[in-house]
Design goal:
Distance between the termini: 96 Å
Number of domains: 2
Largest sheet: none
Shape: elongated
Number of strands: 0
Order of helices and strands: HHHH
Strand content: under 5%
Helix content: over 70%
Structural class: mainly alpha
């Protein structure tokens, strides 16, 4: 086993552990992290596999296939984050509006002074 393979496997395990801690309450997310860890370790241990899969899918090289998948995953992550941010913004607006209505003070009429 080459030293880069050891480094990549260790980094993959660290990423899976951090992902598992971040998604501690979501079983599906934890299982997905384990699946991705297994795939990553498989691709690191057997790098020619990516080329075989790429050729089967009609892509020239395994590196190109990984790049396409990474771009797709990045765009998907950005869209998910954007959607969650929009939900949080809406909730914050609703809470701020409700708090402002609850704490609204009716201004007292000023005495009219005739000069």
């Amino acid at each position: 086993m080459k030293s880069i393979q050891v480094i990549l496997i260790v980094l993959s395990v660290i990423a899976a552990i951090m992902g598992s801690m971040a998604f501690r309450s979501k079983l599906i997310s934890r299982l997905l992290a384990l699946l991705l860890l297994g795939v990553a370790i498989g691709f690191v241990m057997f790098p020619e596999t990516t080329s075989d899969i790429a050729r089967a899918l009609g892509v020239g090289r395994g590196t190109d296939l990984l790049l396409y998948v990474t771009i797709f995953a990045g765009l998907h992550s950005c869209l998910l984050l954007y959607m969650r941010t929009r939900v949080v913004q809406r909730k914050l607006t609703e809470l701020t509006r409700a708090l402002a209505i609850k704490n609204a003070v009716t201004p007292k009429p000023k005495a009219f002074s005739a000069r």
